[in-house]
Design brief:
Distance between the termini of chain B: 32 Å
Shape of chain B: globular
Helix content of chain B: 40-55%
Radius of gyration of chain A: 22 Å
Oligomer: heterodimer
Strand content of chain A: 15-25%
Strand order of the largest sheet of chain A: 3-4-2-1-5-6
Shape of chain A: globular
Number of strands of chain B: 3
Strand content of chain B: 5-15%
Number of strands of chain A: 16
Strand order of the largest sheet of chain B: 2-1-3
Chain lengths: 403, 99
C-alpha cells in the first residue's frame, strides 16, 4: 500500500474508533491481499483482535495470516450479528458489499480505503448526481490537458504499478505508429511511475493523484475524445482483459503486448533508453554484492526468516549485501541501505552482480539488466484465477522461485 | 427518475443472470452472443433512446457488476485483441466475458 492510501486507511480507522467502541466488536476483513494484511497489522498494533479474513478464493480458505483464519464469506454468520463489523480495503469493495448483503449479512460494512472511485452499485438519483459532479470535474481537467497538449496523443496509465507502466511503455511505440501519433503525453499516478515513463524517453509526463486520474479517465470514456487511450490491463471497469485469465494462462507481458495493444506474440519490446549510472557505483563491490528487494505492493510478503537465511548465506560467502529501500522501508538486518533512483537501478544491479527480489514492479524495471536475477514469489494464486502468481508474473531469463 | 434508468435498475435488481447490452450490433451479432452466452445471460431489447441512456450512464460510472455493455471503441483495450492475436478463440472470448 502506498503512503497516501495508508494515511487514508489510518485516518478512516481513527474516525471509526471515534465513532464506535471497536474493542466491543467482532472485526472481520474481506479479501486477503497485501493491503488487507497491512490493515490487520494496524488493527493488531492497536490492540484489536481480528476474527477472520473473508475470501472467496478456496485455495486461501483454511490458511492463516498471523494466526487470523482466512475463511469463506458465509462463515461470518453466527450469533450476535450486530456486534460484527466488516472492514474492507480492497478494490472490489462494491462487489464485496453486494455479496455480503446477498448472503443476508445485515451488519456494518466499512470502507477504509477508496481504491475504486468508479464503482457504486446503485442507480439512485443521489448517486447519479454525485457521479455527474465527479464526471464534470474530470471533463474540466481533460479540457485543460487538451489545451496544454493540443497536438499530443494522450496515453493513460491509470494505476500506480511500476510493472504495468513498464509494459505499457515497452510496447507503446508500435501503437503510436499505428495511430500516426508523432507526439504524446503519458498520464501516470505518482513520481515512481513517472520515472518509469521517462526511462523510455517520453518528453511529456503528467503525474496525477489517484482521484484526479480516475476523474479524468472517466471523462475520456464519457466524452469519447479521439486522441486518448487507456493503456491498462484491468482498469477502469470497462477494461475486461483480465477475464481471459479465467480460461487461459497469459503472462503479464503478453497481456500488455497482445491484449492492451493488439500486437502479435512475437513482437519485441522496446528497452528503456534513458538510464543513468548510480552516483555512488564505485562503493559497490563489483561482482561481489547482492541487492535485496524485500518489499512489494501487490503481492503478499514472504516470511522474514527467509530473508534472514538469504542474508546469512551470501554474507557467509563474503558478499556485501544491500537492501533496496524507499522512504520508511527498513534495511534487512546485516545489509546496507541502498537508495537509488529507478533509472539508476540497472547500473546498480549490474555492478553488484546479483539481484534477489520479491516479485514486484522493480523486477520489471530491471528485467533487461545483465546480471544474475532471482525473483521470489509467495505460493499463492493470482487474484481469483486458477493460476499461481509465478505463472502470471514469470520473468524470462530470471530464476523464478516460489517460496 | 428517468424511466429508462428505472427500467434498467429493475432488470439489474431482479436478474440473477448477467445482462448484456450491445451498443453496436454490427460488430457484435446478437445471434453470436446468444449462442455463446447460453442461459447465463439476459439480452434485453432496448429502444434507441434506452440504449443511449444506458451508454451515457455506463460511461459515467460503474453502476452494476452484472451488466456487460459492448460496443466498438478506440479508447481502451478489449478482449477482441486476444482473438486478433490468436490467444483466444471467439467463443472463448464470449465465455470469458461471462465468467
Amino acid at each position: 500500500m502506498d503512503k497516501l492510501h495508508y494515511k487514508e486507511m489510518t485516518d478512516n480507522l481513527d474516525a471509526l474508533e471515534h465513532r464506535c467502541t471497536l474493542s466491543d466488536r467482532e472485526i472481520y476483513l474481506f479479501g486477503h491481499c497485501n493491503a488487507t494484511e497491512e490493515l490487520a497489522d494496524l488493527l493488531m498494533n492497536r490492540g484489536y483482535t481480528v476474527c477472520g479474513i473473508l475470501d472467496n478464493n478456496i485455495s486461501k480458505q483454511g490458511t492463516f495470516y498471523r494466526q487470523i483464519p482466512i475463511m469463506e464469506p458465509a462463515n461470518i454468520f453466527g450469533p450476535d450479528m450486530e456486534r460484527k463489523i466488516v472492514c474492507i480495503v480492497a478494490r472490489a469493495y462494491a462487489a464485496m458489499v453486494k455479496q455480503l448483503r446477498r448472503l443476508g449479512y445485515a451488519g456494518e460494512i466499512i470502507k477504509l480505503v477508496d481504491y475504486n472511485s468508479y464503482a457504486e452499485y446503485s442507480l439512485s438519483e443521489e448517486t447519479i448526481a454525485r457521479k455527474k459532479e465527479r464526471l464534470e470535474r474530470g471533463i474540466v481537467r481533460l479540457q485543460a490537458m487538451q489545451e496544454k497538449y493540443p497536438d499530443c496523443f494522450q496515453i493513460y496509465c491509470p494505476f500506480s504499478a511500476l510493472g504495468d507502466v513498464y509494459y505499457a511503455m515497452a510496447y507503446l511505440p508500435y501503437f503510436l505508429k499505428e495511430k500516426k501519433a508523432n507526439d504524446y503525453v503519458v498520464f501516470v499516478i505518482g513520481g515512481a511511475c513517472g520515472s518509469v515513463v521517462r526511462m523510455f524517453g517520453a518528453e511529456h509526463v503528467e503525474v496525477l493523484c489517484q482521484k484526479d486520474m480516475d476523474e479524468q479517465v472517466q471523462a475520456v470514456l464519457y466524452t469519447g475524445i479521439s486522441n486518448a487511450y487507456i493503456a491498462h490491463q484491468d482498469r477502469p471497469y470497462v477494461v475486461k482483459l483480465y477475464k481471459a485469465l479465467y480460461l487461459k494462462k497469459i503472462p503479464l507481458e503478453m497481456i500488455y503486448k497482445c491484449g492492451v495493444y493488439g500486437l502479435q506474440p512475437d513482437c519485441m519490446p522496446y528497452k528503456p533508453s534513458n538510464l543513468k549510472p548510480y552516483e555512488r557505483l564505485e562503493e559497490i563491490p563489483e561482482g561481489n554484492a547482492v541487492i535485496l528487494s524485500p518489499y512489494a505492493k501487490s503481492v503478499t510478503n514472504i516470511p522474514q526468516e527467509y530473508w534472514k537465511k538469504i542474508v546469512e548465506h551470501y554474507a557467509g560467502q563474503g558478499y556485501q549485501l544491500y537492501t533496496n529501500a524507499v522512504g520508511e522501508e527498513e534495511a534487512l538486518p546485516g545489509t546496507l541501505r541502498l537508495e537509488a533512483r529507478l533509472n539508476q537501478m540497472q547500473s546498480v544491479v549490474e555492478r553488484a552482480g546479483t539481484f534477489i527480489g520479491l516479485r514486484s514492479g522493480l523486477c520489471d524495471v530491471i528485467k533487461e539488466a545483465d546480471c544474475k536475477k532471482i525473483a521470489l514469489y509467495p505460493d499463492c494464486f493470482y487474484s481469483d484465477t486458477q493460476w499461481k502468481m509465478e505463472e502470471i508474473y514469470h520473468l524470462e531469463g530470471w530464476d523464478n522461485i516460489v517460496v | 427518475m428517468n424511466t429508462c434508468i428505472q427500467k434498467l435498475e429493475k432488470q439489474l435488481r431482479e436478474s440473477g443472470e448477467n445482462i448484456i447490452c450491445l451498443g453496436n450490433t454490427e460488430t457484435v451479432p446478437p445471434e453470436l452472443a446468444y449462442k455463446s452466452f447460453g442461459r447465463r445471460m439476459v439480452c434485453p431489447v432496448l429502444t434507441a433512446e434506452e440504449t443511449e441512456v444506458l451508454r451515457e450512464t455506463y460511461y459515467m460510472y460503474e453502476f452494476a457488476d452484472n451488466l456487460i455493455y459492448i460496443e466498438e471503441n478506440n479508447h481502451f483495450p478489449g478482449l477482441a485483441n486476444f482473438v486478433k492475436t490468436g490467444l483466444l478463440t471467439e467463443d472463448e472470448m464470449w465465455e470469458s466475458l461471462l465468467k
